Amino acid sequence: xxxxxxxxxxxxxxxxxxxxxxxxxxxxxxxxxxxxxxxxxxxxxxxxxxxxxxxxxxxxxxxxxxxxxxxxxxxxxxxxxxxxxxxxxxxxxxxxxxxxxxxxxxxxxxxxxxxxxxxxxxxxxxxxxxxxxxxxxxxxxxxxxxxxxxxxxxxxxxxxxxxxxxxxxxxxxxxxxxxxxxxxxxxxxxxxxxxxxxxxxxxxxxxxxxxxxxxxxxxxxxxxxxxxxxxxxxxxxxxxxxxxxxxxxxxxxxxxxxxxxxxxxxxxxxxxxx
Length: 274
What we know:
By secondary structure, the chain is mainly alpha-helical. The chain contains six helices and no strands.
């Protein structure tokens, strides 16, 4: 666990150095997270080395256990052959291997426990760095929001400055002056062109339109009497000439005779049918 205490001290010293050297919170936060990730990589390497040591001890333990079992088998083989001195030597070798197995087993157990603790600490460190990264993003967002709000307030303060509005009023007056000068130059150009008669009639029409609007408004308000309706055109009496009158009477007489003749023919047909 000593590597993590050294890692914490290293990160702390680096952070203090960054805080003393940097004034931009965003750059400092990014640098802090970068340093943490770099230290995390180093911690992973050391944990990986510890895991490798644990596996190496496990292999040695397995090998020495196999060797002890082999010397025991040889001692048994010597006894079957009736050679006790050789069996004793084989058992002595087995005891040596058993002692080495016991030592290796103790070291392997401790190393395995340490590796599990290192893995747990590494996971916690990784989680802490991920949390720091998330907080970094939130803090940077808060910083940018505060900077934007500050810029808006500074702009609003500038707009509340009376000199800014005075400048706008001054510019508006200047534009009014430019427009007046342009209109004056246009009127002068018309007068200089010699077409003054048309200009007079245009002016008269504009003034007449204004007078008509004023009279209509006065009549609407009752100040002036309502405008009298237009007089109806005189009705002309229709005088027919005697010739025309006689011609009309003759036409009516002819029509009546034709109608009587038609009715007489119809009666004769009905009698003939009977």
